[in-house]
């Protein structure tokens, strides 16, 4: 299990505010991603969030999470409606920290790609209208060659045709799209595009994230969802230090992963399950925070975010196949609030 992050001895010399920041770590707001409350009205959802003592929200605007609480087309078309919608949050002292449009804007199906790219652009416009600074999404995944009709996720550069296909994807589809997307976002005052490192998309780990950031610019950063990195063998604190010290963490999903050693040892990590009725043979699955890794581990994670000066929120996302969504959020919030209080000495 990872230990506490080690701060270099010369950190104060490199950063004059380091000692001050270490003495007064930021109280990172704890929030929730709204699809878990898809069955609730906007007002009922906000009442629930307030009752849980949460301080912020991540709101889906379309794509895979849908937009149950954000009528995107309607809001973008009418600034007064957008401001009234936003006021529902601010009246309850809830920060709308990010707008999320997880889709595949480089899908080989032109209609699919155009729909998700349009959702991204409208999400940027809404963010500009209400002062949200971070857009969350996926990098997407194209086909492996011209004429493909389905995405082709390539992670292994052999046999040689796979290396050729991967190079084509990045050169012809991935980098050109995100250069234009970042340019559009910049033009509308949005400088943080938080891409979730997720299997089946070209950005799926810290190395692929940094490859895209280097090719496109500093508008590209991470939605650091550790649940996808645990099963890849990443140390969460190391990841936070790696990306955080480069200013490349823009958002953070709070979701856990549990491993089932009896299956992991036989079948390996590429044996993930999303459904409760498949768990008997699964190597791992998503769980609410604290149900896959200990509270001590999550304390080291939150401490690492504080140490690197992370400026976003801790956004609870529930995809637990065992706990009902609202229950998973409540239990995750309990763990996160307690470990945050321990760190802050509250």
Account of the 3D structure:
The chain has 346 residues and is of the alpha/beta class. It has a domain at 25-255: Divalent-metal-dependent TIM barrel enzymes (TIM Barrel). It has helices spanning 11-14, 18-23, 42-51, 72-77, 79-90, 110-130, 160-187, 206-216, 227-230, 236-244, 261-267, 295-307, 325-344, and strands at 30-33, 56-60, 95-100, 134-137, 192-196, 220-223, 249-254, 256-259, 284-287, 314-316. It has an 8-stranded parallel beta barrel with strand order 1-2-3-4-5-6-7-10, surrounded by 5 helices. It has a two-stranded antiparallel ribbon with strand order 8-9. Helix 6 (110-130) links the parallel strand 3 and strand 4. Helix 10 (236-244) runs parallel beside helix 12 (295-307). Mean pLDDT is 94; it is low at 1-22.
Quick summary of this structure?
By secondary structure, this protein is of the alpha/beta class.
Gyration radius, rounded? 20 Å
Query: Residue-averaged pLDDT, rounded?
Result: 94
User: Can you identify the CATH class of the domain at 25-255?
Assistant: Alpha Beta
Would you report the number of β strands?
10
Helix share, percent: 40-55%
* Anisotropy-based shape: globular
> What is the H-and-E element order?
HHEHEHHEHEHEHEHHEEHEHEH
Main sheet overview: 8 strands, parallel, barrel
Biggest sheet strand order reads 1-2-3-4-5-6-7-10
Name given to the CATH architecture of the domain at 25-255: Alpha-Beta Barrel
- CATH homology superfamily of the domain at 25-255: Divalent-metal-dependent TIM barrel enzymes
Q: What class would the helix/strand composition place it in? A: alpha/beta
Tell me the fraction of residues in β-strands, as a range: 5-15%
Query: Would you give the CATH topology of the domain at 25-255?
Result: TIM Barrel
Tally of helical runs: 13
- First CA to last CA: what distance? 25 Å
Q: Which spans of ≥5 residues are poorly predicted at pLDDT below 50?
A: 1-22
């Amino acid at each position: 299990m990872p230990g506490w992050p080690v701060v270099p001895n010369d950190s104060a010399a490199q950063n004059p505010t380091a000692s001050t920041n270490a003495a007064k770590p930021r109280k990172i707001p704890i929030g929730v991603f709204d699809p878990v409350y898809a069955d609730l009205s906007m007002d009922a959802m906000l009442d629930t969030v307030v009752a849980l003592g949460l301080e912020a929200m991540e709101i889906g605007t379309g794509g895979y999470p849908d937009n149950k609480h954000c009528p995107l087309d309607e809001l973008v078309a009418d600034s007064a409606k957008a401001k009234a919608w936003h006021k529902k949050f601010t009246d309850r002292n809830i920060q709308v920290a990010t707008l999320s449009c997880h889709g595949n804007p480089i899908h080989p199906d032109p209609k699919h790609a155009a729909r998700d790219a349009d959702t991204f652009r409208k999400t940027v416009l809404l963010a500009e209208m209400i002062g949200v600074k971070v857009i969350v999404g996926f990098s997407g995944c194209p086909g492996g060659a011209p004429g493909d009709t389905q995405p082709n996720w390539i992670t292994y550069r052999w046999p040689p045709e796979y290396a050729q296909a991967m190079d084509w994807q990045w050169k012809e589809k991935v980098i050109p799209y995100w250069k234009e997307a970042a340019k559009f976002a910049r033009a509308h005052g949005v400088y943080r595009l938080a891409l979730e490192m997720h299997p089946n998309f070209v950005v799926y780990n810290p190395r692929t994230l940094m490859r895209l950031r280097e090719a496109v610019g500093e508008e590209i950063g991470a939605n650091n969802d550790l649940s996808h990195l645990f099963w890849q063998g990443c140390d969460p604190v190391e990841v936070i230090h790696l990306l955080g010290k480069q200013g490349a963490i823009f958002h953070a999903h709070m979701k856990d992963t549990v491993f089932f050693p009896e299956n992991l040892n036989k079948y390996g990590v590429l044996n993930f399950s999303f459904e409760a009725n498949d768990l008997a043979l699964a190597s791992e699955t998503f769980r609410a925070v604290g149900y896959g890794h200990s509270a001590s581990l999550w304390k080291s994670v939150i401490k690492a975010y504080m140490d690197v000066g992370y400026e976003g929120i801790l956004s609870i996302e529930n995809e637990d196949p065992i706990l009902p969504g609202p229950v998973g959020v409540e239990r995750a919030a309990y763990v996160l609030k307690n470990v945050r209080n321990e760190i802050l000495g509250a």
